[in-house]
């Protein structure tokens, strides 16, 4: 990742300060836009969820190992544990998109902050603050609205209830991925760009990757764990390595249930190539390059472009509509996530100010 020069330096290849400030923000926005295409693209492939998950992650892993030298290292046991959580998230994201609407999938996966807040005291040693209780309650209400706000079955959402349950489960596995990547970032000795509680948005494929998937990323969908990738330029880039191995594990886990591959069209392979190369791999590379130059709160805000655009692409491509309860639930979840990010940023600023005085 190219290093951002200090404002006072003026090397021969240095760019004006305004361009240096704009470039990482455009990279994060581009990553969020790519993450957001996951739902519509997955639905456009005329294959079941298992082969889509397998081939999407296979292509993404191949692209990442070719384009990011830092992933070519032996993973530790902790990396593989985080990668396993991420792999499950990637598979759940694909399966949910095949069964329910893209809007329900991305909004339910965006409940990851609820699980992060609830699990942080046990897994990260972080106590729940009084201000977090409002976020927990708001996201919980949004979760109930989403799970119960079932739309009639349709060609692109044949089993909404089952898909919603899988998407909600992906919120839990994405939360575990976020916390694991935060722990890896700490272990790498490099500070992350944001707090683990504010990192959840893909998510993802990424996304995506992490996606997903948010990511899912996944990422995206990983796409929401921008803070977890704040140390990708450091010698020990453990989170991005875990994301790579997550794609490897997802492809391996889905392979037995994908064979033999059913008949497919050339268009299916083109969409799968887009999912692996652009929706996951390129999105993660852009996120990795941009997140180090953008404050944590602003990163969270920019990555909110994914859940905003995701249902829009599904509507434009497949005619999927968002019901009022789904829309209300998604709005509550996104609003609670933004408010929690803002509160965490203010708290971090006060702590930095107090440390500077001391």
Account of the protein in words:
- The chain is an all-alpha fold.
- The chain has one domain.
- 65% of the residues lie in helices and 0% in strands.
- The chain has 13 helices and no strands.
- The chain has helices at 17-36, 38-44, 49-67, 77-99, 102-109, 112-123, 130-148, 160-187, 238-254, 266-290, 296-303, 305-318, 324-357.
Write the layout of secondary structure elements.
Layout lengths: L16 H20 L1 H7 L4 H19 L9 H23 L2 H8 L2 H12 L6 H19 L11 H28 L50 H17 L11 H25 L5 H8 L1 H14 L5 H34 L1
Helix pairs in contact: 1-10, 1-12, 2-10, 2-12, 3-4, 3-9, 3-10, 4-8, 4-9, 5-8, 5-12, 5-13, 6-7, 6-8, 7-8, 7-13, 11-13
Question: How would you summarize what this structure contains?
Answer:
It contains 13 helices and no strands. The chain is mainly alpha-helical.
Offer a few descriptive terms.
disordered N terminus, 358 residues, 13 helices
What is the rounded Rg?
19 Å
Secondary structure: helix percent: 55-70%
Low-pLDDT runs of 5+ residues are 1-12, 188-214, 217-236
Percent strand equals under 5%
Average pLDDT works out at 80
What is the CA-CA span between the terminal residues?
Answer: 34 Å
Structural class: mainly alpha
Tell me the number of helical segments per DSSP (H or I, 4 or more residues long): 13
Which sheet architecture does the biggest sheet show? none
Whole-number count of domains:
1
């Amino acid at each position: 990742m190219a290093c951002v020069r200090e404002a006072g330096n003026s090397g021969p290849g240095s760019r004006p300060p305004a361009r240096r400030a704009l470039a990482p923000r455009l990279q994060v926005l581009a990553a969020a836009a790519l993450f957001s295409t996951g739902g519509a693209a997955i639905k456009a492939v005329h294959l079941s969820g298992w082969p889509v998950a397998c081939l999407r992650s296979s292509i993404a892993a191949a692209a990442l190992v070719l384009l990011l030298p830092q992933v070519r290292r032996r993973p530790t046991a902790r990396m593989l544990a985080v990668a396993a959580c991420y792999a499950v998230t990637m598979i759940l994201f694909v399966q949910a998109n095949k069964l329910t609407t893209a809007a329900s999938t991305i909004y339910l996966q965006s409940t990851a902050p609820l699980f992060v807040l609830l699990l942080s005291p046990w897994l990260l040693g972080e106590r729940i603050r009084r201000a977090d209780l409002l976020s927990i309650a708001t996201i919980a209400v949004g979760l109930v609205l989403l799970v119960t706000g079932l739309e009639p079955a349709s060609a692109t959402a044949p089993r909404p209830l089952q898909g919603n349950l899988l998407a909600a489960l992906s919120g839990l596995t994405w939360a575990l991925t976020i916390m694991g990547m935060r722990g890896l970032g700490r272990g790498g000795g490099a500070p992350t760009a944001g707090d683990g509680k504010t990192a959840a948005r893909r998510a993802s494929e990424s996304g995506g990757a992490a996606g997903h998937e948010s990511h899912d990323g996944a990422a995206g969908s990983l796409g929401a764990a921008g803070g977890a990738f704040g140390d990708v330029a450091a010698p020990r880039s453990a989170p991005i390595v875990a994301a790579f191995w997550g794609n490897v594990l997802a492809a391996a886990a889905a392979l037995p249930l994908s064979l033999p591959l059913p008949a497919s069209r050339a268009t299916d392979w083109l969409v799968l190539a887009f999912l692996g190369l652009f929706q996951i791999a390129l999105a993660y590379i852009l996120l990795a390059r941009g997140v180090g130059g953008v404050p944590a709160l602003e990163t969270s805000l920019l990555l909110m472009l994914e859940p905003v655009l995701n249902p829009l692409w599904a509507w434009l491509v497949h005619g999927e509509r968002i019901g009022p309860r789904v829309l209300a639930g998604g709005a509550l979840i996104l609003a609670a996530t933004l408010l929690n990010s803002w509160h965490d940023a203010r708290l971090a600023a006060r702590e930095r100010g107090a440390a500077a005085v001391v």
